[in-house]
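Fig. S4 source data, part A: sequence.
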Amino acid sequence: MTSRGLRNCNPGNLRRTKDRWKGLRLQQTDKEFFQFVDMAHGYRAMMITLRNYIRRYGCRTLASIIRRYAPPSENNTSAYLAYVCNEMGVPTTYEPDLEDKATLCALVSAMSRMENGVDAVPEEVEAGWKLL
């Protein structure tokens, strides 16, 4: 069975808000999560969200980014963080440069795997980067 995030072309499972993301499906039939026209637009939204955590909210470390993205009220945040750190081969104190293509793509790939249970398709992640 395909995960909700993949069915919605929303690999980061971004919750619906007032944001009007580029690439949204015309009809949003999922009441909780955004639905995008393709995975590239879903990855783009995820990448922008993570960059905004640094720019707007002062998140610097991977731990602070993951705590904001996957709060304990909805997730096992410590397991999420441990998984992403293991996938990226970095400590929780790592300060990712999300302006760097390789770093941002590695982060969203690891998070997508955590969210959906399957490996991200590198070409889809890179297509999201190209839409930034």
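Fig. S4 source data, part B ends here. The helical segments are 4-7, 39-57, 62-69, 77-88, 101-116, 122-130.
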